[in-house]
Amino acid sequence: MTRLLRSTALIAALMAAGAAQAQTTTTEVYLNGTNMSVALGPGMSANPFANRGTAESLASIIDAPSASAFEKHNQQTHVWVSGGTLALAFDLRDEYNLSTFHFWNYHSEAYDVDDIDLTFYDGANQLVGTLLDVKPSLGGTSQNDATEIYAENSVLAFPAKVRYVSAVLSGSNGQVDFNNMGFTGVLTSTVPVPEPGTYALMALGLVAIGALRRRQRA
Q1: Nearest-CA neighbor of 130 among 143, 116, 144, 142?
Q2: How far is CA 191 from the centre of its chain?
Q3: Residues 6+ apart with CB under 8 A from 37
């Protein structure tokens, strides 16, 4: 009986050791409306947008399907605040090692976004980095609504885990007009995985326990 108890204790120890092993995987993710959310930031009025309602405008900010997608400027795609700045609060819903900020600007100087300040926080709302005074180029190659507007990409040079992002956008003449914003980041996942050697030892232990039980019955 004592041998059986010792073998059982060995199996339990081996299972605990196996569970302690972990496999880490990393996945690059483009963040848009399918996996993050955006709301108005502090100090904004309930409906600051000049062309559409708040819910529709906020959804339009993060609806680009990929970092390489393009949009054309029209009343259903662009986001416009007239007479002030636009403050936004993003929730990425998980912690990412962000690598790139993507921004689709308006195509002409009178209304485009001229400056962006980004502040990054981890899941505990601790400050982990900033990207200030981003001066985006005009969107597209010609100053008309027929042009295809692609994202301008800004590298994020800090490796910290980010969940929340605050953004403040401003433009000359008090105009803030653009099409989309998005981020690319790496999501790290850790999954407990027993090592093959642990599985073998567990199998041998179970065989030993079975043999001891048969002897005791005999």
Answers
A1: 116
A2: 19
A3: 62, 90, 91, 93
Residue 130 has pLDDT above 80, yes or no: yes
Tell me the residue type at 104.
Answer: W
Contacts of 204 (CB under 8 A, 6+ apart): none
Give the DSSP H or E segment for 30. strand 22-31
Written as one letter, the residue type at 106 is Y
Contact 93, 177 (CB under 8 A): no
Euclidean distance between CA atoms 24 and 155, whole angstroms: 25
Cα gap 199→193, rounded to integer Å: 10
In this structure, the answer to whether residues 85 and 128 fall within a common structural domain is: yes
Same domain membership, residue 206 and residue 109: no
Which element (helix H / strand E) includes 93?
A: strand 86-105
The model's confidence at residue 24, banded by pLDDT at 50, 70 and 90, is confident
Number of domains in the chain: 2
On whether the CB atoms of residues 121 and 191 are closer than 8 A, the answer is no
Alpha-carbon torsion 54, 101, 137, 147, what sign? negative
pTM given for the model: 0.79
Q: Concatenate the DSSP letters of all residues of 100-111 into one string.
A: EEEEEE-SSTTT
pLDDT tens-digit profile of 141-158? 888 999 999 999 999 988
- The domain in which residue 212 lies consists of 2-21+193-217
